[in-house]
Structures are given as structure tokens and as C-alpha cells.
Design brief:
- The protein has about 400 residues and is α/β, with parallel strands linked by helices.
- The protein contains nine helices and 19 strands.
- The strands form five sheets. A six-stranded mixed sheet has the order 6-5-4-1-15-16, covered by helices on one side.
- Helix 3 links the parallel strand 5 and strand 6.
- Helix 1 runs parallel beside helix 2 and helix 8 packs across helix 9.
- The longest helix is centred in the C-terminal third of the chain and has 23 residues.
- The two termini are about 35 Å apart.
């Protein structure tokens, strides 16, 4: 059985104000051609289909159109990620054709999509684990009523996979594919994934997914495997969504699932409609053409003259029409302390603690840190609940 594993499309996303929908359309057109050309049987989309809970209309139309095209030749299974609204993404799932299945309900995560094959290995059970926000599912997934699971990703994802294994045990001779949106094991994050920490922890142990033939993960944007083999993998995002991802080789993952449950993997590079690059130099270097190779790229430009050049913005844009960020960073200025550098992967509680230290002259103590963490996680849970409506 041939599977194409993808995810983290983030339809509707922008990059420093630049609309990515046109570039996402290029990827989706290429994806449809790959599925047809490589005779793919099953397409799995592992969450973060949209970039936000209420996506723009064009993004919704784009998803509808690509699912229709993919379903002409393959079965398609979709699960929601932490950026999606599971309710909105899963709307109408019950009346969709057997070729497109959106698995968005935590209560039904042990109900697989069964895909028949002609390879002699029997059917394949495809289980979808949507993004599981601990505060929203720790009661629903608890094995004992009124005894909630621990408030952690490990607890709720572990309970979910236990349910899946229990169902799979009643299906002898059936191979298994689990599609999940989570932060697993020793995988490497980039600077554009949304923080999902609860109780200060966001990771799930690799062993949580023991017993499955292939685990198709979403959430992390760099394509990578978890552990020593190819059984557990992140497909990564199809486009670079931050300058921190400019050196990624973006791809989709083609998986051949053999009759005995073993897998072989091929990474298929995705189109790069416009690459990303950093440019750093004096205004004289920039205007001289030294960086001509980056003229057609989306660039982040740092001008290093000691004195702020006249008409800085206009002169840079004249050379780099696709510049998304232009800053003046004098080469002889003191280096900024790394402790004050904040990115999308910074711990929000640590950032808040740094601010308290800066504002009061003293670091927060243990009690104050606990208050900061509770406040952050309450706000994050409220946003997640709002997105789920």
C-alpha cells in the first residue's frame, strides 16, 4: 500500500505580511500530480490544515477543491492540529464520501478508517488522533469516570493510543497507520511552531506509539524521523513559514507499507515558489550588486553602516523588491544579549519572568513563577476553547 504523508499546510498564513495563498496553491497543484503520478492509495494530512481556527474564505475554498481532486484517485484522511478548529474542520464529516474522511472527534479516535488493499497483507486501519489539548480531554479520555487524567500531553496522548491499541487487538491481521498531531520524543522544532506547553511540558514519549506499523505526525515543520527507523515520522510543512526555516528542504513523505507491516520511505521535495534569504551588509554593498543572487527571493535585510543611511528603506526596496524586513544594525553596536532575544519557540513563562526581572530589579520566586505559568496556561486554554467552538 502506498501512502502519501503530509501536513502543516497552514492555509491562510502570511509571512511578515506577505500573502502565501498563491504559493500554497502551487504546492497543492503539485501534490495532486504526485498522488496521480505515483499511484498513491492513501493520503494522510496530519493537522494544521488551516493557520487559524477561523480561516479566510479563500483558504476554505482551496481546501475543498484539493480534497475533491485528491479523492478522485486516493482515500484521504485528515486530522485537526492545534491551529485548526476541530469542530469547524470536522463539520460535515459524517456525510462526506468514503474517499474523504475527517477524523476530528476525540471520542471516536479508536474508530478507524479501514482501507482494503490487494497486496496480500489484508486491510489497513487508519486511526486519527486530533490535537489533544489536555484541559479539554483529560476527563473524556480518562479510563475511570470522574478520575481525570494528569494534566499533560503525555497523559492524554497515552490514553488515546491505549484506546487505539485496544481496538487494533480485536482486528487480527490488520496493519495500522496512526495520524497524530503532537510533539514527540527527541524531534527538533523550528521557530514558527506554536507553543503547546501545559505544565511546562509539551513532549510525548516515542514509546507512546509502540505497536503501530506507521505513525504519521504533524506539528513540527522540519521533515524528520523520530527514533532510529522510519516507522515514526514528521512530514514537515510544505513551505518555509519563517526565516528560521529557510535552509529546510521541504518535502512530502511517500511511504510504502509492505504486506508484513514494514515501511520504506522516500522524501519528495515540494516546489519553492520563492525562496527565503538573509542579506547583511553596508548600503554600498547592497547597491553594488554583491547580493544579486537574492534579488528574486523574499529577503530579510540588515544594513550595517555605522551611521543610518539616508532613504534606507527606499534604497533597499529598489534593489530588493521582495524585502519583507529591513533593519539598521550598525556593525560596531554592542551585541545584544541573547537572553533578551525572543522567538516563537521561547517559553512564554520565561519571557514573562525576564520582564518581571527587568521591571522590578529582582527575579520572580517559585510562587510568582507558578502564578505566571498558571496565568499563561489559562489564557492558552481559553484561546484553544474559543477556537474549538
Amino acid at each position: 500500500m502506498r501512502i502519501l504523508h503530509t501536513g502543516d499546510w497552514h492555509l491562510g498564513r502570511t509571512l511578515l505580511g506577505a500573502d502565501l495563498l498563491e504559493h500554497q496553491a502551487v504546492f497543492l497543484d503539485d501534490l495532486v500530480q504526485v498522488v496521480r503520478r505515483r499511484a498513491v492509495d492513501l493520503v494522510v494530512i496530519a493537522g494544521d490544515v488551516y493557520d487559524r481556527a477561523i480561516p479566510p474564505v479563500e483558504a476554505v475554498r482551496m481546501l475543498s477543491h484539493v480534497l475533491e481532486r485528491l479523492a478522485e484517485t486516493a482515500t484521504v484522511v485528515v486530522t485537526p492540529g492545534n491551529h485548526d478548529s476541530a469542530v469547524r474542520l470536522g463539520f460535515g464529516a459524517g456525510v462526506m464520501s468514503d474517499r474523504v474522511r475527517i477524523l476530528a472527534e476525540p471520542a471516536r479516535l479508536a474508530d478507524p478508517v479501514l482501507v482494503d488493499t490487494d497486496d496480500g497483507g489484508g486491510p489497513v486501519a487508519v486511526y486519527g488522533l486530533p490535537y489533544l489539548q489536555p484541559d479539554m480531554v483529560r476527563y473524556a479520555l480518562a479510563p475511570v469516570p470522574d478520575e481525570p487524567l494528569a494534566r499533560s500531553h503525555q497523559a492524554v496522548v497515552g490514553a488515546a493510543t491505549d484506546r487505539v491499541r485496544a481496538d487494533l487487538a480485536g482486528r487480527p491481521g490488520t496493519r495500522s497507520v496512526v495520524v497524530a498531531h503532537a510533539f514527540v520524543g527527541g524531534a527538533l522544532a523550528s521557530d514558527s511552531e506554536q507553543d503547546i506547553r501545559v505544565g511546562g511540558v509539551d513532549r510525548v514519549a516515542e514509546s507512546t506509539f509502540d505497536g503501530f506499523d506507521y505513525v504519521a505526525l504533524g506539528h513540527l515543520h522540519g521533515p524528520q524521523r523520530v527514533g532510529s527507523g522510519d516507522r515514526i515520522r514528521y512530514a514537515g510543512s510544505p513551505l518555509a513559514f519563517s526565516f528560521g526555516e529557510q535552509n529546510h528542504t521541504k518535502s512530502v513523505t511517500l511511504v510504502d507499507l509492505a504486506a508484513d507491516g514494514s515501511v520504506s520511505v522516500e522524501l519528495l521535495p515540494t516546489p519553492v515558489p520563492r525562496r527565503l534569504a538573509d542579506v547583511r551588509g553596508s548600503i554600498e554593498q547592497i547597491e553594488s550588486g554583491v547580493f544579486a543572487a537574492d534579488v528574486d527571493a523574499w529577503v530579510r535585510v540588515a544594513v550595517t553602516d555605522t551611521v543610518h543611511p539616508e532613504r534606507l528603506y527606499a534604497r533597499v526596496k529598489d534593489r530588493f523588491p521582495h524585502a519583507l524586513a529591513i533593519t539598521h544594525e550598525s556593525a560596531d553596536a554592542p551585541e545584544r544579549s541573547a537572553a533578551r532575544t525572543v522567538s516563537a519557540t521561547s517559553d512564554p513563562v520565561e519571557v514573562a519572568a525576564d520582564f518581571v526581572t527587568y521591571a522590578t530589579g529582582g527575579a520572580p520566586d517559585g510562587v510568582e513563577l507558578a502564578i505566571l505559568r498558571d496565568a499563561y496556561e489559562s489564557a492558552a486554554a481559553a484561546l484553544a476553547e474559543q477556537g474549538a467552538r
